Amino acid sequence: MTTNPRAGSGTTLITVAPTGAEADKGRYPALPVTLDELVATARECEAAGASVIHVHIRDGDARPTLDLARLKDTVAALRESSTLIVQLSTGGAVTDSFDDRLAVLDAGPDGCSLTCGTVNFGDDVFMNPWGFIRDLYARTKELGVVPEFELFDLGHVATLHRLLDDLGEPHGGHVHCDLVMGVPGGMNGDAATLVAAVEALPAGASWSATGVGRTSLPVVFAALSAGGHLRVGMEDTTSYARGRPVVSNAELVQRAATLADLAQRPAMRPGQAREYLGVGDRN
Ligand code: KMH
Ligand code: ZN
Fold first, then answer.
1. Model-level pTM?
2. Shortest-distance Cα residue to atom 1 of ligand 1
3. How far away, in angstroms, is 201 Cα from ligand 1 center?
4. Using 50, 70 and 90 to split pLDDT, how confident is the model at 8?
5. Over the stretch 69-101, which tens digit does the pLDDT of each residue have?
6. Is 111 exposed, middle or buried (0-12, 13-18, 19+ CB in 10 A)?
7. Pocket around ligand 1 at a 6 A CB cut-off
8. Among 129, 116, 188, which residue's Cα sits nearest to residue 156?
9. Which ligand has the shortest distance to the CA of 113?
10. Could you give the CA distance from residue 257 to residue 177 in angstroms, rounded to a whole number?
């Protein structure tokens, strides 16, 4: 495998993705959907070892929304209550418009997700055509938002190369990717696929990996053994073990931090993560 000095650093960046756009609050009561629930989750997850929070928000009926005022309030509240890096989702829900997804950046987050291609998403399609990817990336550079490149499939890695060739390095100067594995329609969540994707990444890029559903643990172990970082949370996994629902996002972060400790790459703290990812200090 390609040697990657940043990914081989001595600590593990843990991102929590606590909510997502798909899980149903009625079915999963532990899902944080209100601002108070999200703030409490951020605090608990920071204490458990997270340094980045990947945020989707919900409306008063717990449905996914990209309402800009609500997003701004969320960024402010998370900054007040934690030192986590606040990464807003620009993926939203499969039903969100490109304009609304672009406007997410106006909420002023530290970072954002930026998916590098269209992918089948269960019975739906998560649309990310080239023109949108390019516009979104250009806007992150204008506004000084650090993107995390979300890669659901190997073809997305090719598009990431094209994007960097076309528009240059991201704000902050460092390329960080997240391999989102095990989505029905995307790449498999297993060690062989992870290694293939990591080998194709741009030189010098760091990466984390996320295993959706039952691929969560295999992907955690594969990522740790390959020198990568971790994303966990109820956006991706609602079962802690077979037949045992997740009780809180913090328990997923705690488990990731314990495994990172065992791998002798303990959890990176938020200040260190800011430097690592090229996210500036807060004003
Ligand atoms: N909810 C998915 C359709 C992202 O946050 O950038 C897209 C998603 C990716 O969750
Ligand atoms: Zn997301």
1. 0.97
2. 93
3. 20
4. very low
5. 999 999 999 999 999 999 999 999 999 999 999
6. buried
7. 20-22, 89-91, 93-94, 113, 115, 121, 126, 150
8. 116
9. 1
10. 20
